[in-house]
Design a protein that fits this description.
Largest sheet: 6 strands, antiparallel
CATH topology of the largest domain: Tachylectin-2, Chain A
CATH class of the largest domain: Mainly Beta
Oligomer: single chain
CATH architecture of the largest domain: 5 Propeller
Structural class: mainly beta
Number of strands: 35
Shape: elongated
Strand content: 35-45%
């Protein structure tokens, strides 16, 4: 493998990690772990909605595709709003691709309103909000922008007056869009996602960047104002194992989760022409690592399913619904670069038939359930590095302590001082036993749950558990 540019180095972990109130502390990596015994990290369970796809193509301007290839899904003021992409590959020019808009009252049943903004496929009675030859148009909702005219932003790969690259768009309502005054990132690649880093107050794109390294690699660029961007830097590249298995990094998404970053890596299995999803994480937004490298987080569906050959989430972050996270994704039932002519026959309205069919799916998972540390029949032990919280009265634990056989699961958690000695009144041995499956078990010691006496001092958390999946803890 050719020599690649050096990847960003992870930010050094401080001697004492400050825990933000209400921020879930995940175990997707080893950042918080000082010592562990008899534990295995496993990816969480993604449950595909049984009624998938939740949004399907069927209108003349969609060309057999209605999927968030970038796109975005948000719940705003009680209304669910989706921006999805269409692709009529047999055409050239403005009508080849569109960004379309849909709404829902529950995130399941989606409507395509007639907006009458752009004439596409011979009609203005459509839900098209952007019509130009583009790829990977991603949308973010940015309510903190003081300029109300820029509360919605989008980035797309297209060709404009300044050449090919990434161009921006802004909107006050997500429906009426204006182009940015100039190109954002010249010569960036066609597979791009756009997201907002609320921790560092930066706009971010993951993209390809041919001027540094042609091909399928993940580059990252950022901006403070949406107009002036850093030069993209390489943040993820293939491993030797990837090469041996014919895997390439096709694209990536990122999002803030609590006080860290999570994301999805789009993996192209080149020999089979199919794409699925791995999980990635970062502690600073620049240095990324794969969680359970090589293991599939969002798999393809079975033969003849809408996501048989492609399954990758939209560029927007997961949406919390009760104790679940909902993730919308693009699914395709045909392989990448399908063979054959650009069209096979014609639809009833006379337009050419699409060579592939793509729709929008939904997967659901437990809150914080991206990955767990699992103990089976032998007692597992986890001791964290020194941490400190300055606010919060209680410790909540997200864990499945109800694994078969019945009655075999238990968990205890306590606090140690910085040197590893049990703290009186909060020791693991004196902890009340936790049982059951909950995203928010409340830890207690002899019935007492108040932990504010520990506020401001370095402590370690010590978990002991059997036949349990531990996902996260939160100080509230």
């Amino acid at each position: 493998m050719a020599k690649l540019p050096e990847l960003p180095k992870p930010r050094p972990r401080p001697p004492v990690v400050d825990i933000a109130p209400g921020a879930p502390q995940l175990f997707v990596d080893d950042y918080l772990i000082d010592r562990s015994e008899n534990l295995v990290r496993r990816l969480g369970d993604m449950r595909k909605y049984e009624g998938n796809p939740v949004l399907s193509p069927g209108r003349p301007w969609e060309g057999g595709t209605a999927f968030p290839f970038g796109g975005g899904v948000y719940r705003i003021g009680g209304e669910w709003r989706m921006w999805y992409n269409t692709y009529r590959r047999w055409l050239k020019g403005r009508e080849r691709t569109s960004l379309c808009y849909a709404t829902s009252h529950d995130g399941i049943d989606w409507q395509k309103p007639s907006l009458s903004l752009h004439e596409v496929a011979g009609t203005r009675k459509n839900n098209v909000v952007l019509s130009l030859e583009m790829d990977n148009c991603s949308v973010i909702y940015d309510p903190e922008d003081p300029d109300a005219d820029r509360r919605f932003k989008a980035v797309a790969y297209t060709k404009g007056d300044e050449g090919t690259g990434l161009y921006g768009f802004t909107s006050e309502d997500g429906v009426h869009w204006r182009p940015s005054p100039r190109i954002l990132i010249p010569k960036a690649g066609d597979r791009t996602s756009f997201w907002y880093d609320a921790l560092r107050k930066r706009y971010v794109v993951f993209t390809r960047y041919g001027p540094v390294l042609p091909g399928r690699y993940i580059f990252r660029a950022e901006s403070e104002d949406f107009l002036n961007w850093t030069t993209p830097e390489l943040v993820l590249h293939w491993s030797e194992i990837d090469l041996a298995h014919g895997r390439q990094h096709y694209g990536a998404n990122g999002f803030v989760y609590g006080d860290m970053y999570l994301g999805f890596l789009e993996v192209f299995h080149y020999p089979y022409r199919r794409l699925d999803t791995e999980l990635i994480c970062s502690r600073d937004g620049r240095a990324w690592e794969r969680v359970c490298e090589g293991e599939v987080f969002l798999p393809n569906g079975p033969d003849r399913s809408f996501d048989q050959f492609w399954a990758f989430p939209a560029a927007s972050p997961p949406i919390r619904v009760g104790d679940e996270l909902w993730i919308y994704y693009a699914g395709r039932m045909h392989p990448h670069s399908p063979p054959g002519p650009p069209a096979h026959g014609r639809e009833p309205d006379g337009t050419p038939k699409a060579t592939f069919w793509a729709a929008t799916g939904l997967v659901r998972m437990r809150v914080d359930g991206f990955a767990s540390l699992d103990a089976s029949g032998e007692e597992g032990v986890l001791v964290t590095v020194p941490v400190r919280f300055v606010e919060g009265r209680e410790l909540r634990v997200n864990a499945d302590v109800d694994r078969p056989p019945p009655g075999s699961s238990w968990l205890k958690v306590g606090f140690l001082d910085e040197e590893g000695r049990p703290i009186a009144g909060f020791s693991p041995e004196g902890a009340d036993t936790i049982k059951g499956d909950s995203v928010a078990h409340r830890a207690s010691w002899g019935g007492r749950w108040e932990i504010s006496p520990l506020s401001g001092r370095p402590v370690r958390l010590a978990f002991r558990f059997v036949n349990t999946r531990l996902y996260s803890f939160t100080v509230r």
